[in-house]
């Protein structure tokens, strides 16, 4: 990734920190916040983004002393809700909860109505959503190493269900193919639920999905947990190896992080107050327990750390997506 792109990403934070931006919210309304905030959840109710967004809204509201009202605004892989925040006033009262799909969308969608690095301000990274690759009853391979061997020996024989073209679990599997030299056939469904159901029924051999979507099925023996996509073992999935270890693919790691963004131009004092509220929401014993009970790991990072994660993931996913020719018109 060229240096100019990295500088573009970091510029909103650097400019605000240097005092180069105005303070509209502070000047017009006194101490921030003095009225309810909105937390846009750019996906439908019931999914991982919704679960995290509602919990975060509740706990950030407690920390800020004002309600944070969750609002689902779904469509276009999260782009519709995110666009609404990108175009909102930079006063701190409109936020969006995103997962790393937002980074992937830059390269998957032919046109985006916003620029992730120009139009949004990183507030804080708040969570990791443990994600598994699972085998269903149709899968004859004993483990992920055998899955990789079959995908090399008989490219395209095994089918992997995804919640949609260009989703993070889709490109994660493309990354595994690229690193292993094998080939799985991608079968795209409309959402995680249908993809998981297809694997349980034997329509596809494999599926990748968040822990919250497959935990009970794994415990019931209807799916087999073959690997954890993240770069490290998860305390929420004891005994499940990483894909890197299970498939013998050193360096494979897909951390499905969740984060809070705000419109670009957000005054630094307000950004810091929101960052502090996010920390209080997730980086405490109570916050960690609340997330864990919903199948999510607490993983706090400040705004600068989040900007660095976005930049690193952008460098990583662009060549994978270009090579696989994944495009959503």
Automatic annotation (TrEMBL):
A Pfam entry, by short name: TctC
Keywords: Signal
UniProt keyword annotation of Methyltransferase present: no
InterPro entries in alphabetical order: BUG, Bug_dom1
Keyword Signal: yes
Signal peptide: 1-27
Sequence similarity: Belongs to the UPF0065 (bug) family.
Protein name: Tripartite tricarboxylate transporter substrate binding protein
Species of the source: Roseicella frigidaeris
């Amino acid at each position: 990734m060229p240096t100019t792109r990295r500088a573009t990403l970091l510029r909103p934070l650097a400019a605000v920190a240097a005092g180069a931006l105005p303070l509209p919210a502070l000047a017009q309304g006194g101490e921030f916040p003095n009225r309810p905030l909105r937390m846009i959840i750019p996906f439908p109710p019931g999914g991982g983004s919704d679960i995290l967004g509602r919990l975060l809204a509740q706990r950030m509201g407690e920390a800020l002393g004002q309600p944070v009202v969750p609002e689902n605004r779904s469509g276009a892989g999260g782009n519709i809700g995110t666009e609404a925040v990108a175009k909102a006033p930079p006063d701190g009262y409109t936020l969006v909860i995103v997962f790393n799909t937002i980074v992937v969308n830059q390269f998957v969608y032919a046109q985006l109505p916003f620029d992730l690095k120009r139009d949004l301000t990183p507030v804080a990274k708040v969570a990791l959503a443990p994600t598994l690759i699972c085998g269903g009853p149709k899968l004859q391979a004993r483990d992920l190493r055998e899955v990789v061997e079959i995908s090399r020996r008989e490219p395209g024989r095994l089918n992997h269900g995804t919640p949609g073209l260009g989703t993070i679990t889709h490109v994660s599997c493309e990354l595994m193919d690229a690193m292993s030299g094998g080939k799985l056939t991608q079968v795209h469904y409309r959402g995680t639920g249908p993809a998981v159901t297809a694997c349980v029924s034997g329509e596809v051999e494999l599926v990748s999905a968040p822990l919250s979507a497959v935990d009970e099925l794994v415990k019931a023996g209807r799916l087999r947990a073959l690997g954890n996509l993240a770069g490290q073992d998860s305390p929420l999935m004891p005994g499940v190896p990483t894909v890197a270890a299970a498939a013998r693919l050193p360096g494979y790691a897909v951390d499905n992080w969740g984060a809070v963004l705000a419109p670009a131009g957000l005054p630094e004092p307000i950004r810091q107050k929101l960052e502090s509220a996010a920390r209080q929401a997730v980086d405490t014993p109570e916050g960690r327990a609340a997330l864990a009970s919903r199948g999510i790991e607490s993983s706090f990072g400040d705004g600068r750390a989040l900007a660095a994660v976005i930049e690193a993931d952008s460098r990583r996913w662009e060549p994978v997506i270009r090579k696989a020719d994944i495009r959503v018109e």
